[in-house]
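Lab notebook, bench 4. The sequencing result for the construct came back, and we need a structural model before the next group meeting so we can plan mutations. Quick request posted to the team channel:

Model the 3D structure of this chain.
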Amino acid sequence: MNELNEKLVADLKTLSGDVQQILQATAGDARAELTAARDRLRQSADKISGRIAEIEERAVARTKEAVASGDRVVRDHPWEAVGIAGAIGILLGLALRRRD
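Done. Here's the predicted structure in token form:
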């Protein structure tokens, strides 16, 4: 697991703990504890949202890099790409035909 995912898991555990504290605080009439627990919950949620956005940005960047790399390969070797695509199509056709 990479560092960013580990941080996200840790933040989710913190969020879970904060939710438990809110549930316990609302069982009684502890307004100060409830306000503090809500503040911690809001901070945890904001932190998690930021990490999720960061993970999403990285995933989008990796996807764009992979698409660009694939595009370069196809442009550099167009006939090989056509041959591979044809072979895959034939194999899929045969596999689907056997199912029926």
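The two ends are 42 Å apart (CA to CA).
Will bring this to the meeting.
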